[in-house]
Amino acid sequence: MDKVVPTAAAAVADIGDGASLAVGGFGLCGNPMELIRALHDAGVTDLRVVSNNCGVDDWGLGILLRDKRIAKMTSSYVGENKEFERQFLSGELEVELTPQGTLAEKLRAGGCGIPAFYTVTGVGTQVAVGGLPQRYDGSGGVAQASAAKETREFGGRTYALEESISCDFALVHARLGDRHGNLVFAESARNFNPLCAMAGGLTVAEVEELVEPGEIDPDRVHLPGIFVQRVVHVGTAVEKRIERRTVRPRSVPVDDAAAAAAGEEVGS
Length: 268
Prior knowledge:
The chain has eight helices and 13 strands. It is α/β, with parallel strands linked by helices.
């Protein structure tokens, strides 16, 4: 039952070329950065990755993309990565864009053994009718487009059939974990990390704080250890980044209550 492995390198050692991989994180929040670095150092390539986004040019999954280790990306949002744009438009990268809620449910369903489900999201658009570019030919033309999805009516409304997602491996980051793999995620990091963990055939979790079994209140567990096969302790000093930080300069202290009453912007 002790699932702890000594290093991130050991934890990802059996992920080979061409593997499919679900990777947790939301923006740059909750990225399993130590595991991504270890995978990059191992030289693994031709990966088929499922993640909400692909990091930025020098962080998160962006370091794998930069060195052309990713062959296909299934994502919801890719707007922060210029190299991603370049590879996609040049025909070097296959991309399957998926509505965010649908992607979340596809991962959850895959982890629960549900092969497919119906959703109204995307009906009437290229998501459902097909024709969404997945690979360009490098000259501005579409070399590969998405296929049409099966639709069906329920209660007089049309729904599209979406297949679930399961991957060979999953990499996730948790704030707290025990040796049995029970995990607790911090705030926004809870968005996709649990779902990616569920969708992995073999899930590796890096944890900031490692505790003994029984130290986590069962009511606090966000993901039970049944979904986790390996745990790596990375410590609380791991670097964390924010995509963009926006603040409003303030030269004179403002009474927030008075400003709010006057209809002005409050906070910074």
